[in-house]
Amino acid sequence: MQWIKIVLKKTFPVMTGYLVLGIGFGIVMENNGYDLPWVIAMSVFIYAGSMQYLGVSLLTGGASIIQTAIATLMVNARHLFYGISMVDKYSDAGKAKPYLIFALTDETYSLVCTGDVPEGIDSHKYNLLVSLFDHCYWVLGSIMGCLLGTVLPFDTTGIDFSMTALFVTVFVQQWMDNKKHFPAITGVAVTAICLMIFGADNFLIPSMVLITVILSLGRKFLEKGEKADA
Amino acid sequence: MHDGLLIVTMAVVTAFLRFLPFLIWNGKRKTPAYILFLGKYLPYSIMGMLVVYCLKGVQILTFPHGLPELLAVVAVILLHVWKKNTLLSIIGGTALYMILIQMVFI
After folding, report:
1. For residue A220, how far is the Cα from the chain centroid?
2. Taking 50 as the threshold, does the pLDDT of residue A230 lie above it?
3. Region class of B65: left (phi > 0), else alpha (psi between -120 and 50), else beta
4. Per the CB < 8 Å rule, is A113 touching B80?
5. Alpha helix locations (H) across B55-103?
6. C-alpha dihedral sign at B84, B85, B86, B92
7. More confident residue, A149 or A179
8. Which of B10, B46, B100 sits opposite A85 (nearest CB)?
9. Is A136 on the interface with B (CB under 8 A)?
10. Confidence of residue A227 (pLDDT cuts 50, 70, 90)
11. Chain-centre distance of CA A117, in angstroms?
12. Sign of CA dihedral B57, B58, B63, B64
């Protein structure tokens, strides 16, 4: 039971974020006439926050299957990145591997990509619990949103910033743990520049391509110091 | 019926994107050194990308000019450098952000 406490503590930031964003999603679905089974089906099987929000407009706007598939490819292409960087870490995860891969959201990725596993827990077991807990928060949040609607005890405006704060925290932690800041700087700079050039709806894919290209060009430089570091 | 198909489409395409890298490099063949290299350094870039992604909706040209976001992000950074406590950094930054947009920049 000790490790349940540890995982709860580790996933707490995701819990607050997912409950809030999930509640928001549930409310939007309810307002558009989709009841609980629809909400649960989407949160369980799609399990991708921004995609589900967009999904509501696809559903209500009567999008075609092709349009929906293309929209999903565009919005969720960043998940390819998570996969590529977890291929090695999840390579011997055993039976849980398919679920670990399925549940690799932005937030879960930010918790498992660091490879920072609390002492005394097997890393795959830890990653599985983190993934499962996060998934539960998300489903629970959307159910709450659907059932409770707008009846909330206090003004939660802005609480979704916890997601941003989570990513900033991981970013800072990685920065302090690592002497090489080139990849981190590349990530921020390239994405910011692409956002300015391509706009908020189209910047992710160009950012991903450019980040990969720049890191690849810098490979010699990055790997040069590796032996010295070790 | 059509709604159900759209949900299935979203679920299948999302899962496809998540599974694809693992299907290509499935551990049966040796993972190429280049992919291991990306696996090692991409997380740092991705986290930077996600931070910008979260802030993509910030309007710098209109009031409050992204100030609540800027102040809250700086608070998270300072808190984290100072105390190195993830939970504290996130709660502190989020609380500040909520106060800023609910009470200060209105």
Report:
1. 30
2. no
3. left
4. no
5. 67-83, 86-99
6. negative
7. A179
8. B46
9. no
10. low
11. 18
12. positive
Measured between alpha carbons, how far is A198 from A196 in angstroms, rounded to an integer?
6
Q: What is the DSSP string of A36-98?
A: HHHHHHHHHHT--HHHHHHHHHHHHTT--HHHHHHHHHHHHTHHHHHHHHHTTTTTT-GGGHH
pLDDT in tens, B12-51: 999 999 999 999 988 777 778 888 888 788 888 888 988 9
Please give the Cα distance from A143 to A39 (Å, whole number): 7
Q: Which residue of B has its CA nearest to A155?
A: B102
> pLDDT for A29-47, tens place per residue?
888 889 999 999 999 999 9
From B35, which residue of chain A is nearest by alpha-carbon distance?
A84
Residue B30: closest CA among chain A residues belongs to which residue?
A88
Give mean pLDDT, residues A60-88. Answer: 87
- How many CB atoms lie under 10 A from the CB of residue A47? 22
Measured torsion, CA atoms of residues B58, B61, B62, B68, in degrees rounded to the nearest 10: 40
Its pTM stands at 0.81
Q: A177-213 pLDDT, tens per residue?
A: 888 899 999 999 999 999 999 988 888 888 888 999 9
> In which element (H, E) is residue A30 found?
helix A2-31
Measured CA to CA, the distance from residue A80 to residue A159 in angstroms comes to: 28
Kindly report the CA angle at A172 between A168 and A177, in degrees rounded to 5? Answer: 150
Exposed/middle/buried for residue A116 (C-beta within 10 Å: 0-12, 13-18, 19+): middle
Complete DSSP assignment for A134-175: HHHHHHHHHHHHHHHTT--SS--TTTTHHHHHHHHHHHHHHH
Instruction: Round to whole Å and give the CA distance between B58 and B61.
Output: 9
Rounded to an integer, what distance in angstroms lies between the CA atom of residue A78 and that of residue A58? 20
